[in-house]
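hiii, so i know i said id send this last week but things got crazy w the move. better late than never?? heres the sequnce for the chain we talked about at the cafe, plus the structure i predicted for it. fair warning i was half asleep when i ran it
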Amino acid sequence: MSVILKAEHISKQYRLGLVGTGTISHDLNRWWAGIRGKEDPYLKVGSVNDRSAKADSDYVWALQDINFEVQQGEVLGIIGKNGAGKSTLLKILSRVTIPTTGKIKTKGRIASLLEVGTGFHPELTGRENIYLNGAILGMSKAEIRSKEAEIIAFSGCERYVDTPVKRYSSGMRVRLAFAVAAFLEPDILVIDEVLAVGDAEFQKKAIGKMQDISQGEGRTVLFVSHNMDSIMRLCTRAILMKNGSIIESGAVANVIDTYLSTEFGATSHKTWKKNNGNDIVKILKVKAHNKNFERTDNFKITEKIGITITYEVIESGHKIHSALNFYNSSGTNIFDSHESNTALYHEKKQSGIYEATVWVYENLFSEGVIVVGVALVTHDPFKVHFHDNDSIAFNIVEDLERSPTRGDYVGSLPGIIRPYLKWESHKINKND
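okay and structure toks below
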């Protein structure tokens, strides 16, 4: 395979709150430096793109020294928290904006789907926008016409294709925009998190099309998403961004593992060798796993989740048991669970190594990251011997094949939990 896209030392600097440098004197300084062949004096200043920290400069680096290559036919996933610089990078790759320093080398045509309605003229109909986008990509009218029927059918907007786009819902715009970008045969397809606006049915359809594009047609896809399930299923490689820099690049599973570790302080397993207890009990390890006790970072909503804690009792004669705290990625406590119904719960444990496993019901959590804290306690008297607030973390992802909590509903389902509740309904007589 050959390199189809290469980013070399890409950086992007912005002045906070203003366009340009903000003053005539700064603009003149920048112009005069350029005339003399000198480095831009304002590239030497600027703070790192960390939204949580107070700015110490009028300049901020949205991206800083980004370097990577993409092979033809590769699907590259780009992940990171909001504000990491993912969308800025895609805008530079798509030539929507230019880098402050560095350069992009590409081969072939690039089609981008960055924001809802990007590249669409609101006053033109859906059909007219198909031809407009095709022309922007350098395609002839005959080439566009040969793809027109497929685009309209895939988008599901047949009824409204001759209606101005300004009257489309956000979901309809995304459907049509994705169909245009995918079917007009670009060499590189760049897609931002915008697919999250579409319903579950369309997301599944779009991911299938992207797999066909990369595997069947040998074209390249750059895909930004917060949905780790989509990244795992679709991408052949991933990069992790934080504060405008790439902190890891490589195998998808490894990058997701690092993402959980760096952003949430944990992965789905942890082992302790020190600072793990006291002279009475010490924790050894904890892991999240599937029904076969295989460790994993991603669980489907419909999947049962096991968490196993291994600890060593040092001093015999105490009623020691385990406890877990479950949080979402924002730190909200979802619930706690104590080892209160095992056969050994009321027994005074003898020295030795013990293992406790708890099973979290399927169809309980909603999509997102779950962080788990672990504790070892006694109640004779009450004492916390060990407590780690963010020991492990894992992803809960949508099950598009079967989801009893979703049913036939395809819209957004917010919330921290999504329990499968029992419903009853019946017809009543008007006179009742």
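btw The chain has eight helices and 19 strands. thought thatd interest u
miss u guys!!
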